């Protein structure tokens, strides 16, 4: 197992090194032409490799580095992921342009400066727009009808916020936006379908994020499930304890009956499959429930929608995909999942996948938005017999 991990880690490190070397060489050429004799290559390469490897440095050194330094490295590294992605997309086009201009006998000093400036401008625009999309959440509303009765309820308003990713990059400021918008929405129920924290529990505790989350209130309660990042962090008992302190119940293969009218089932994340405690098959989890009562399932990763429908779920709420977060990654998530974002109906079954409220890696979104779901469920009303 250790040997396999070492080989995998070595391959990843090699790929990261090659990709960043390609990006770094372009920066070196551009600065050499731009700054001339003022350019010091050794200084550039030291700064470049620290920036490009900062996320890895934060991960490797989190147990020995002071918390502030490891957090700084993680923030720099998070932004660098975006630099890598768009570097791979833009720099081959820059190379092609440079080659064509070279064939046209344009002086290299001229076309290197021009192309480099255009690439930097595009990068800046991507970061500005991406930051706005990530930091300016919208409310996306869905209205559905379930052909079941829920007592005397005619409808239920549910707020859904997945993938908040609280940690080093997403903090109290963004979390407060969620609290403020849900306070205005006044939902009957709040559901958090996984990845509430961004793996490490320490920033959540150090920054007292629980004090902000405590403000999330709804008459029927606030419920969450585990996402893959809670498993990556490995602090699940501590995370569940923190949630309990602030009145948020984490459902781990559990079902709750709300007001004797409606079930909410919360699954452990798919990441737990193969672990000693595993996760319960959905069919087993909902076995014995009253099929006449509406059933909402929270499952972080939107796999096997057909199984959820067959198990009797009326609604399945998921996140995880971020809709790729940065275009054109949505082309990949769209192939991996039957529904990677939005709404899908199969007969009487409704599936909703959120692009998420927070971000993983760079606090940027392109082709997706930070969002809160406002889900209004209408129920079938009992028919009343008219007297003669």
UniProtKB/TrEMBL annotation:
Gene3D superfamilies: 3.60.21.10. PANTHER family: TRANSMEMBRANE PROTEIN WITH METALLOPHOSPHOESTERASE DOMAIN, TRANSMEMBRANE PROTEIN WITH METALLOPHOSPHOESTERASE DOMAIN-RELATED. SUPFAM superfamilies: Metallo-dependent phosphatases (SSF56300). This is Metallophosphoesterase. The lineage of its organism: Bacteria, Bacillati, Bacillota, Bacilli, Bacillales. Keywords: Membrane, Transmembrane, Transmembrane helix. The chain crosses the membrane at residues 37-58, 79-99, 111-132. InterPro entries: Calcineurin-like_PHP (IPR004843), Metallo-depent_PP-like (IPR029052), Metallophosphoesterase_sf (IPR051158). Residues 156-323 form the Calcineurin-like phosphoesterase domain.
């Amino acid at each position: 197992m250790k040997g396999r991990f070492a080989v995998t880690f070595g391959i990843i490190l090699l790929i990261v090194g090659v990709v960043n070397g390609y990006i770094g060489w372009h920066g070196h050429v551009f600065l050499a032409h731009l700054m001339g004799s003022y350019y010091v290559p050794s200084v550039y390469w030291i700064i470049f490799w620290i920036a490009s490897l900062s996320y890895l440095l934060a991960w490797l050194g989190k147990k020995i580095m002071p918390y502030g330094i490891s957090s700084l490295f993680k923030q720099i590294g998070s932004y660098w992921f975006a630099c890598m992605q768009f570097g791979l997309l833009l720099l081959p086009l820059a190379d092609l342009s440079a080659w064509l201009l070279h064939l046209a006998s344009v002086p290299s000093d001229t076309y290197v400066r021009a192309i480099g400036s255009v690439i930097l401008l595009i990068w800046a625009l991507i970061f500005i727009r991406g930051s706005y999309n990530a930091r300016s959440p919208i409310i996306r509303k869905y209205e559905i009808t379930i052909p079941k009765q829920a007592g005397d309820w005619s409808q239920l308003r549910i707020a859904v916020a997945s993938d908040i990713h609280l940690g080093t990059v997403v903090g109290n400021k963004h979390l407060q936006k969620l609290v403020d918008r849900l306070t205005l929405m006044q939902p009957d129920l709040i559901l958090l379908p996984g990845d509430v924290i961004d793996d490490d529990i320490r920033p959540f505790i150090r920054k007292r994020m629980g004090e902000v989350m405590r403000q999330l209130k709804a008459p029927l309660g606030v419920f969450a499930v585990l996402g893959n990042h809670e498993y990556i962090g490995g602090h699940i008992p501590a995370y569940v304890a923190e949630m309990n302190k602030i009145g948020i119940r984490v459902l781990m293969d559990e079902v709750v009956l709300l007001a004797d009218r409606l079930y909410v089932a919360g699954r452990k994340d798919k990441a737990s499959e193969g672990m000693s405690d595993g996760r319960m098959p959905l069919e087993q989890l909902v076995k014995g429930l009253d099929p006449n009562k509406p059933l909402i399932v929270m499952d972080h990763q939107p796999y096997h929608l057909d199984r959820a429908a067959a198990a009797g779920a009326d609604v399945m709420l998921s996140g995880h995909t971020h809709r790729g977060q940065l275009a054109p990654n949505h082309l990949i998530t769209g192939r991996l999942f039957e529904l990677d974002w939005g709404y899908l109906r199969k007969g009487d079954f409704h599936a909703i996948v959120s692009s998420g409220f927070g971000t993983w890696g760079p606090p940027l979104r392109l082709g997706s938005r930070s969002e809160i779901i406002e889900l209004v469920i209408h129920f079938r009303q009992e028919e009343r017999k008219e007297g003669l």
